[in-house]
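call fold(seq) -> tokens
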Amino acid sequence: MIQKIRLASGFFTVGIWTLLSKVLGFVRDIMIASAMGSGPMAQAFLIAFSLPNMFRRFFAEGAFNTAFVPMFSKKVEAGDSPENFAREAFSGLASIVLVTVLLGQIFMPFLVLAMASGFADDARFALTVDYGRIVFPYILLISLAALLSGVLNALGRFAAAAAAPILLNIILVSAMYLAQFMGWEIGTALSWAVLLAGFAQMALVWWAAHKAGITLLPRRPRLSPDMKRLAIIAFPAALAGGVVQVNLLVGRQVASYFDGAVAWLSYADRLYQLPLGVVGIAIGVVLLPDLSRRLRAKDDTGGNQSLNRAAEFSLVLTLPSAVALMVIPTALVSVLFQRGAFDAVDTANTAFAVAIYGAGLPSFVLAKVLAPLFFAREDTKSPFRFAVVSMVVNAGLAIGLSPYFGFLAAAIGTSVAGWSMLALLWFGSRKLGPAAAMDARLKGKLPKIVLASFVMGAVLLGAAYGLAPWLYGSSLRYAALGALVAIGALVYAAILIGSGAFRPSDIKSMLRR
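ret:
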């Protein structure tokens, strides 16, 4: 019971902080859209900012942490000098990423072409190279922050790690206000703000780890037996992370050949990343260390409970979000982004992408539920093989469909590849024993959650039609969107309760926690 409470508490701690971060991210992107629209400066900054984020996911949040967190969790569980192992990992990661930063500064023009070759011989290219050189050292800071966050998550301390991304959004929003006040170029101001935010994020999680009894300082890296084991486990995960990044590269390359598309896909990505971040990342961050501890203790029953409740929690929030993104994307994009330099054409194109991403949202979240089952058993090879298949699907669709669907082919490839990855993870997990099985409770609730989501979608369509005079071009559009969301939430909750999927006491308990 205590473990269940801790797991649920962890989900909500990470989820609430991530929600706040995503809301501030919306404020940030609304300001970027208003100030720069989908023009060259916006596209240049968005590609430049994606460079350190791509390498961060590859080095820290991807390969390194998926190998590091289970090993560190086991050392914590066994009381086997986890701090020394964390220091070795910290120094090793710092050395690798520092070399990457230096090479990136030298070869930045080639990196930009690898990300967006459609920018070649275009004003966007020089801007992206300039911004890229400023923001690229962010990789070092945020990679080390990600490792420190992994340490905190493994120790069951989720708040600081989940709150750190908020600093990025606060600093970027502040930089835009300051740039407008001082008359600075917004793209340059944002680029320097990214670097400042990296220092702030790393400082926050370093101090939190220090307070938790783990003080990590740089030292000469060495190849100890633990580090050899970490490298062996991380290598397939690094390959899998590379595959994921190839998927992102393919999408950006396709988008770079359509003027404005890089910005449209980026703003659409922000919308579907809200539920993905709040639910998927919260589940993944909390579930991986919890599963690692349970499987080490050979507690398959407890692991199965954790996995099924994570899936249930994900579905009850993700399915209605996906349906909403598919049925009312124009209303969402118009109210949130259409102002200043972001016009009706930008709204229409972004809304198309939002609807397509929405169709893939459940697969993205559920993949984050299933993947920790493999990583907790230190199996990084299977997810790599699955990711390769997913990459082929994505690249084939994004490139093959671009002559017919334009930049939307990138979104189609992403969503279809997400479902392919989920299917492979699901079938692969069936070989991992009883911890991976769907329990009776989840089987009973799933059809009711699906029914409630689709009925809610039908109601949202009708409500959006009725509220159209207030949703578009009215000073009451925020209130109209709030009413639309409230109608959807009330209908969804009523059907869940009426069908017996959840009792009022269950919802109250969830809100109370």
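Residues 236 and 381 are 5 Å apart (CA to CA).
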